[in-house]
């Protein structure tokens, strides 16, 4: 059966088109201007960034290792904090609605501030380097991970929790022996996903001075060593792809 457009579809399409045109007008952006600028951008890449300075990979090994360390350390900190907040947000483990609302609001605020903004705020406070990167990523991740965890807890079997409670277990024992075992696969899956996201984010926040390979790429760009910076970009993309493949395999084995 062939579906045809009805009046609602036409109205929605028209409304979306008007909104897009308004935004494009405000930004003074047109598809034609993009096409006109595209050749010069491609020329810059081919002339300045290519051929890639493959021999500079040695200089990136230490910053790349720093990036992994920042991602892992911040993941550990944010996981521990988010796990505690997750139990405070879930209807299955926290009976006081006002507590859930306060913690959820706190997590929502953190979640809506990008990691790079956290890094920009913390660089003046803590200085340039690895410590700032760990703090920025930890704070930035808490919002997302708290949501991942409490949604996982919300999906546990309520009947099992009720039956455990009926046996005389305390509230903490019900959480320990009922909610936690059911939620562990989800916790691990989301933590692996967060690690994958963390590695990408740790490279990005390095561009504003939070350490790691991003800062090294930024330095090379500032010195107009574009083909050396391109080597760093290739390494980041490669590491992100490898991490994604490994995390997908691990998640499939767990779930």
Automatic annotation (TrEMBL):
Question: Any idea which UniProt keywords this protein has?
Answer: Cell membrane, Membrane, Transmembrane, Transmembrane helix, Transport
Keyword Nucleotide-binding belongs to the record: no
Q: Can you say where in the cell this protein is located? A: Cell membrane
Q: Does the keyword Disulfide bond apply?
A: no
Its chief place of residence is membrane
In what way does this protein cross or attach to the membrane?
Multi-pass membrane protein
Q: Which residues form the ABC transmembrane type-1 domain?
A: 64-246
Q: Where are the transmembrane segments?
A: 12-35, 64-88, 116-139, 174-192, 199-217, 229-250
Q: Which Gene3D superfamilies match?
A: MetI-like (1.10.3720.10)
Protein family (similarity comment): Belongs to the binding-protein-dependent transport system permease family.
- Can you name this protein? Phosphonate ABC transporter, permease protein PhnE
The record lists the organism as Candidatus Cetobacterium colombiensis
């Amino acid at each position: 059966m062939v579906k045809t457009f009805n009046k609602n579809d036409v109205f929605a399409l028209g409304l979306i088109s008007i909104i897009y045109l308004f935004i494009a007008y405000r930004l003074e952006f047109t598809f034609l201007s993009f096409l006109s600028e595209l050749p010069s951008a491609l020329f810059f890449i081919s002339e300045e960034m290519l051929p890639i300075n493959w021999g500079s990979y040695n200089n990136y090994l230490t910053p790349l290792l720093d990036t992994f360390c920042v991602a892992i350390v911040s993941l550990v900190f944010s996981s521990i904090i988010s796990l505690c907040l997750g139990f405070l947000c879930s209807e299955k483990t926290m009976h006081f609605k006002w507590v859930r609302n306060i913690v959820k609001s706190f997590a929502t605020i953190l979640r809506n501030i990008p990691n790079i903004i956290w890094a920009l705020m913390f660089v003046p406070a803590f200085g340039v380097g690895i410590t700032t990167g760990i703090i920025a990523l930890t704070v930035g991740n808490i919002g997302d991970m708290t949501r991942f965890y409490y949604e996982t807890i919300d999906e546990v079997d309520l009947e099992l929790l009720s039956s455990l409670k009926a046996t005389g277990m305390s509230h903490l024992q019900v959480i320990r022996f009922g909610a936690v075992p059911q939620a562990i696969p989800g916790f691990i899956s989301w933590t692996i996903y967060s690690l994958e996201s963390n590695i990408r984010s740790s490279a990005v926040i390095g561009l504003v001075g939070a350490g790691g390979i991003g800062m090294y790429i930024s330095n090379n760009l500032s010195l107009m060593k574009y083909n050396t910076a391109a080597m760093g970009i290739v390494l980041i993309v490669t590491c992100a792809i490898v991490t994604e493949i490994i995390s997908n395999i691990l998640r499939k084995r767990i779930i």
